[in-house]
């Protein structure tokens, strides 16, 4: 999962990738947002101060999902009317990657999926969709504001502002998100999970959390 180290083009600090397929990372020293080219790192922006975070998950947290070990290597932070949430980028022990949504003590794991048919250009509550022979229904539409990034991501993601997501569920507990931050939109399929079922290690410790 490791990749050769490089140096930040802004401050010269060492930058080490946990995942060889990472496209973007942030410098831990100067908070520059860095994008990998063929041989170099390019500064494309800078992360402002991140909002307060009550999650015990952090970069470097390890866990297990469906007998596959994973490590958290990055995140995207959003704010919305109920507060904020993290989309943690996780890499599994087979070098595949996915996402762990962490919002108000609710957790979902998901993976980027390529639907056979184009995704709806817009969504509304009650809209029904079908993927992989399963029927999904839109249960919520969330307007959010991009607040920042941290760590390694599988794509460039740093110049967003207001974003829109449609969350869908199946009758048997399946989960999906249509991400309208991109054109065409992106589809993520997954499952809701319980915190304890992920068998976390290396959590962030702070007062009030046990």
Notes on the protein architecture:
With 210 residues, the protein is mostly beta strands. The protein has strands at 6-7, 14-15, 24-26, 32-36, 41-46, 62-65, 68-80, 83-92, 97-103, 106-113, 128-131, 134-151, 162-169, 175-179, 186-193. Strands 7-8-9-10-15-14-13-12 form an eight-stranded antiparallel beta barrel. A three-stranded antiparallel sheet has the order 3-4-5, with no helix packed on it. Strand 4 (32-36) and strand 5 form a beta hairpin. The chain is globular and about 50 Å long. The chain starts with 5 loop residues before the first strand and ends in a 17-residue tail after the last strand. The model has no long low-confidence stretch (mean pLDDT 91).
Q: What attributes characterize this protein structure?
A:
three-stranded antiparallel β-sheet, 0% helix, 15 strands, 210 residues, mainly beta, single chain
Describe what is shown at a glance.
This protein is mainly beta.
What is the terminal separation in angstroms? 31 Å
Oligomer: single chain
- The class by helix and strand makeup works out as mainly beta
What is the 3D form?
globular
Uncertain runs with pLDDT below 50, 5 residues or more? none
Strand content: over 45%
User: How large is the count of helical segments?
Assistant: 0
The percentage helix is: under 10%
The SSE order reads: EEEEEEEEEEEEEEE
Number of strands: 15
Radius of gyration: 17 Å
| Nearest-integer average pLDDT | 91
């Amino acid at each position: 999962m490791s990749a050769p180290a490089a140096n930040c083009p802004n401050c010269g600090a060492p930058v080490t990738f946990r995942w060889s397929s990472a496209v973007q990372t942030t410098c831990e020293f100067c908070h520059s947002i860095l994008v990998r080219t063929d041989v170099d790192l390019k500064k494309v922006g800078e992360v402002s101060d991140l909002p307060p975070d009550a999650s015990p998950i952090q970069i470097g947290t390890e866990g297990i999902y469906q007998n596959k070990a994973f490590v958290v290597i990055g995140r995207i932070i959003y704010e919305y009317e109920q507060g904020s949430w993290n989309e943690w980028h996780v890499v599994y022990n087979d070098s595949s990657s996915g996402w762990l949504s962490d919002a108000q003590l609710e957790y979902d794991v998901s993976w980027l999926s390529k639907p056979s048919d184009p995704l709806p250009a817009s969504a509304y509550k009650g809209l029904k969709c079908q993927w992989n022979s399963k029927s999904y229904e839109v249960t919520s539409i969330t307007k959010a504001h991009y607040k920042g990034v941290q760590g390694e991501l599988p794509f460039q993601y740093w110049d967003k502002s207001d974003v829109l997501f449609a969350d869908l569920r199946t009758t048997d507990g399946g989960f999906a998100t249509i991400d309208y931050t991109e054109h065409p939109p992106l589809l993520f399929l997954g499952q809701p999970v319980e915190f304890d079922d992920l068998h976390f290690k290396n959590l962030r410790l702070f007062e009030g959390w046990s």
